[in-house]
Specification:
By secondary structure, the chain is α/β, with parallel strands linked by helices. The protein contains 17 helices and 13 strands. It has a domain of 256 residues: 3-Layer(aba) Sandwich (Rossmann fold). Helix 3 links the parallel strand 5 and strand 6. InterPro entries: AB_hydrolase_1, AB_hydrolase_fold, Asp/Glu_racemase_AS_1, Pept_S33_TAP-like_C, Serine_prot/Carboxylest_S33.
C-alpha cells in the first residue's frame, strides 16, 4: 500500500517522506542523478515509489507535480499529483506524448505505462512517450484514506427493501464520516479537475498537444479534457466509455438491460426437449417472474448462501456464454426443488472499479465515491433511489430493479458538472456490444454528446480492445487519424 497521507484543512500531515507515497530517494537511488524536465524531477519509479507494483520495471520514471486544489483559487492550497513516463524507444521522435488512462476511479494508474508493452498497443511505444497520472485522491497522488467500519448483519431472510436500506445506511454513514475528514479536498475530486491536472502535466512536459488512450473510467477524464481543452488534443481514443452524465438510476437501469433476457427465453424455448418449460416464451417469462417474486417474499437459506429474487434475476439477465450454466441452476428451482448448495451469488461487489482488476494500492473508496457522486444528477436519498429501482422493476419484471448502486447514498457534497461538449479534435470511441460494466449505450450517448466515431466490438468483455486483432485500428488512428464507425470481432 502507498504510505497513507491524512489530509486536514490547511497543511497536510506527513511523516519523513514525500507526499503521495513516493519515498525520499535511498542512497543507492540518489547516486544516479535525477532527470529534470521543467517542473518535473524524474527518478526510476521502482527506487522511489513505496511498494512499486513491478520491481522488474526499471524503465518507468516517476515524478510529482504540484497543482492547485481548487483551480478557481490558483494561489490557494496546493496538492501533489503522481505522474509517470516510459520514454519513447525512438529518442528522435517528435510525436506528442501518449497519455494512457487505465481505468478507475480510486485506483493507481502510474504503473500502467509498462503494461502497454504487454498489449497490442506496444508499437505506440516506439515513437511516443507513454505517460500516465494518478488522479487526485488515489494511487500515489495526494489523498484522504478512510476505512470502512463493520456493517451490521442483515438477516438472511430479509426482503429486498430491507436489504437495500441496510446497504444504503452503511454507505451513507461512510460517506458522511469520510467526506467530513476534509470536505474542501473531497469537493474537488471530479473528472474535470483530473482533466485540469492532466493539462498541468502537459504543460510541465512542454508538449503543445497530447494523444490520449483511455479505458473505462479514464474515458470520463478524457471526455472532460477534450471538452475543456479541445485544441490541446492531437488524437483521442476511448474504449468502454463512461456516459456523459452521471445519473445513477439511469446507469443502473442500463446495466440491468445488458442481459439478453429475450434471447435467454428464446433459447430455453428452443431447448424444450431438454428443459421442459414449453415453447411459449411469454409463459416462461411469467414463471421466472413469479419465482423472483416468491423468493423476494420468502428467501431460502441454502448452506451459507441466500436464494432470493436477485438470485433469479442474476441468472435470467446474463450473457449468452452463461446460459447453459444458468439454466442448469435455475430449472430445478422453477420445478420446485431446493438445491443442497449454491454457487456464490453473481452480484457486483460494492465500489466495483470501472477498469482493470484492482492493482497494487487497492481501491481508495472515498475517491471512488467522490468521483462518481460529486457531479451526479440523480437523487441521493433512500426513498427516491428505492422508488426509481421499483419503477425499473415494474418496467422489466424479470430483471429490472436488480442493480442497486448505493455509493452516492446521502452524499453530502454537490458540484455543478462540467458538460461534455462537441469538439474538433479527432475522437474515436469503441463500445462492447453486450458488456455489463460500461454498457454499450453509454458509448452511444458519449458519441452524441461529444461528436465522435464509434467502433462496435462484438463481445461482452470490458476494455478488451488492446488485446484483440483489431487493435490495428487503434494503431492506424494514432498513426494517421483514420477513424471508423464499423464493427470488430471481439473475444470469442
Amino acid at each position: 500500500m502507498p504510505l497513507p497521507v491524512l489530509l486536514r484543512r490547511g497543511t497536510p500531515l506527513v511523516s519523513a517522506v514525500l507526499l503521495s507515497g513516493l519515498l525520499l530517494p535511498s542512497a543507492s537511488a540518489a547516486s544516479a542523478p535525477p532527470k529534470k524536465t521543467g517542473e518535473l524531477t524524474w527518478r526510476p519509479c521502482h527506487s522511489v515509489a513505496k511498494d512499486w507494483p513491478d520491481p522488474d520495471d526499471t524503465r518507468t520514471e516517476c515524478a510529482q507535480l504540484r497543482v492547485p486544489l481548487d483551480y478557481s483559487k490558483p494561489d490557494g492550497r496546493k496538492i501533489s499529483i503522481a505522474v509517470s513516463r516510459l520514454k519513447a524507444e525512438n529518442a528522435a521522435s517528435k510525436a506528442p506524448p501518449l497519455v494512457y488512462g487505465s481505468g478507475g476511479p480510486g485506483l493507481i494508474k502510474v504503473s500502467a505505462p509498462a503494461g502497454v508493452l504487454k498489449t497490442g498497443l506496444r508499437p505506440l511505444a516506439a515513437d511516443h512517450d507513454i505517460v500516465s497520472m494518478d488522479d487526485r485522491g488515489a494511487g500515489y497522488s495526494e489523498k484522504v484514506n478512510c476505512d470502512s467500519e463493520p456493517a451490521e448483519d442483515t438477516p438472511p431472510t430479509a426482503g429486498p427493501k430491507e436489504r437495500a436500506k441496510a446497504e444504503f445506511d452503511d454507505q451513507s454513514a461512510y460517506n458522511k464520516r469520510c467526506a467530513a475528514k476534509d470536505p474542501e479536498f473531497a469537493r474537488q475530486l471530479t473528472p474535470a479537475n483530473a482533466a485540469r491536472d492532466l493539462d498541468a502535466f502537459r504543460q510541465a512536459l512542454g508538449a503543445p498537444q497530447i494523444d490520449y488512450y483511455g479505458v473505462s473510467f479514464s474515458t470520463a477524464v478524457g471526455l472532460a479534457y477534450r471538452s475543456l481543452f479541445d485544441d490541446r488534443v492531437h488524437r483521442m481514443w476511448l474504449d468502454s466509455v463512461m456516459p456523459p452524465v452521471f445519473d445513477h438510476s439511469t446507469m443502473d437501469g442500463d446495466v440491468e438491460a445488458t442481459g439478453d433476457v429475450d434471447g435467454f427465453v428464446q433459447w430455453l424455448a428452443r431447448h424444450d426437449a431438454e428443459f421442459h418449460l414449453g415453447a411459449d416464451k411469454a409463459a416462461i417469462v411469467r414463471r421466472v417472474t413469479a419465482l423472483r417474486d416468491e423468493l423476494d417474499r420468502k428467501p431460502r437459506v441454502v448452506g451459507d448462501e441466500v436464494m432470493n429474487g436477485d438470485w433469479v434475476a442474476d441468472r435470467v439477465g446474463d450473457v449468452p456464454s452463461a446460459w447453459a450454466t444458468n439454466a442448469a441452476e435455475l430449472i430445478p428451482v422453477l420445478e420446485g426443488e431446493t438445491p443442497t448448495a449454491l454457487p456464490k451469488t453473481k452480484t457486483s461487489p460494492e465500489r466495483r472499479p470501472f477498469g482493470f482488476d484492482t492493482p497494487h494500492g487497492g481501491l481508495n473508496a472515498l475517491q471512488y465515491d467522490a468521483m462518481l457522486c460529486n457531479t451526479a444528477t440523480s437523487a441521493t436519498g433512500f426513498s427516491e433511489m428505492w422508488d426509481a429501482l421499483q419503477a425499473r422493476r415494474a418496467a422489466a419484471p424479470a430483471t429490472g430493479g436488480s442493480y442497486f448502486t448505493s455509493e452516492c447514498a446521502d452524499w453530502p457534497l454537490r458540484v455543478p458538472p462540467t458538460p461534455v461538449t462537441r469538439g474538433h479534435s479527432p475522437l474515436q470511441l469503441s463500445g462492447h456490444l453486450t458488456e455489463g460494466i460500461t454498457p454499450y449505450v453509454w458509448a452511444q450517448r458519449a458519441k452524441k454528446a461529444a461528436g465522435a466515431s464509434l467502433l462496435t466490438v462484438k463481445d461482452d468483455v470490458h476494455s478488451s480492445l488492446s488485446g484483440l486483432p483489431c487493435v490495428t485500428k487503434v494503431l492506424a488512428f494514432f498513426r494517421d487519424g483514420t477513424t471508423t464507425n464499423g464493427t470488430c470481432p471481439g473475444v470469442q
